[in-house]
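Quick start: what a row looks like.
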Amino acid sequence: MGGLRELAGSFVVPGPCGVAVRDRLKDLTPQDERVLRAVGAHQGALASGDLKARCADGLGHGADTWAARKRELTARSSSRIAGAITKATHDQWALARRCQAAHIQSLAAGIRTLRHRLSLPVGEKGTKRAAGGYRSKGEWFRKSRRLAALEARHAAAVADWQAGRVRVVRGGKRLLNTRHHLTRARLTEEQWRQRWEAERWFIAADGESGKRFGNETIRVTPDGEVSIKLPAPLAHLANTRHGRYTLTATVAFAHRGAEWADRITANRAVAYRVHLDTGRGRWYLTASWQRPAVKTVPLETARARGMIGVDTNADHFAAYRLDRHGNPVGGPRRFGYDLSGSAGHRDAQIRHALTRLINWAVRAGVAAIGIEDLDFTAEKTREKHGRRKRFRQLVSGIPTGKLKARLVSMAAEHGLSIVAVDPAYTSQWGGQHWQKPLATPHRTMSRHDAAGIAIGRRALGHPIRRRTAPPPHDRSDRAGHRTAQAGPGTPGREGTRPPTTDRPPGGPSPSGTRTREPSASNTVRDAPSTQQWVQDSLMRTG
């Protein structure tokens, strides 16, 4: 492709494999809260100790060490609670390993960029595909020192990876660092302590198929009654038989309540988690379960009724509807959102924009939405983008992972498929081939709107350009229709003929026929020209 990178093929994104719903535990008594706090603190301490033991095992972990840890926890709680704690510990350790690998890749990308730019002469200009040399000797010196720092950090991270050593903070590293900046966070020490303890609690239980209502540790009846199996040291706090404590509050899942009720009625596995929102002073119960793996629809089926191409930007989705032949239908649509503020605000903005996009797709009657397969893992470093701080903030501010997960799960509920395409050159080629042709006095086309068309055409399997090959035989000049305008001397070319000035207006043409004399102008726009243009009959070929 002449220096362009090879494009990856489009594919249908697999559907969601799990469901989670949440409801508030209202009207809890002081005794209920004391029991929940005691259970959370006790099991949280067990989870912290188990995570410490798992991190100490490193790569030497095996089935025997897992069984030994579980036996030790069972004596201090119960078998089911010990199983939930060890499973959560392994998930957290695995997540830390994945984050460690991503950190190593990010450091390696920065080192490569720094080495390349330091190898160039000072002041050498860069290109669109590669940055040039640094602008001064002082900047070159500072970057050489940063290269040494990154290499040291990379070597330390690789050594940790090879040794199986991870660093995990139960409760979150960000919240831990907030302890040193309470004034900036507008928190008192007591408020921070309450939040820190709540984040380190552990009140969760995995589901078990075949057991009553799908969970023996945290049981929720169809009427919404919640009961918890207390660990052995807290059995004296039970208010019902078999060491269970029943809360006075009841739950009723408004979202997916019927699906949840069907599962617990059939005694199918449902996992539960109880947590405290210290900012609001509210307790919540989250129920989650897995869905059976559903085979994705074939790509041709997803393309059958057209596509909606979506271009993801820093503050809006630019969408355009296309028919199955790749032709734009209607006008561009934009769904805005604001990614500033807190994480909850950003998440709500993304959900609202996706809801409007999916509702429009359902009304349009399409079967799929085409979107870019964005991944900025190695594209956020300042070594990659230099002084373009605003662009780095823009790239870092787009929550690509959360956006993908939410779009797939929300679209699946409406029977829509998601087709992921390679994002390469969509904005460039869309602006080149679609922005100007679709612009009208009453419709403004932006580069993002044109990119939406490019994404949709790529998802449909069509090239982004409108015309790249001659038509089939017996159309136009028997497959001689050209993609570019031919020169004036080419026989059979398409377009208007050059002006003829060797005969008077209305006089005979070279073929002997007489043309009609031009009529008088009726409008200012049709004012007569000083030069008369005459259209000859086109040469017939074939």
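That is the whole record. The radius of gyration is 33 Å. The longest helix spans residues 79-119.
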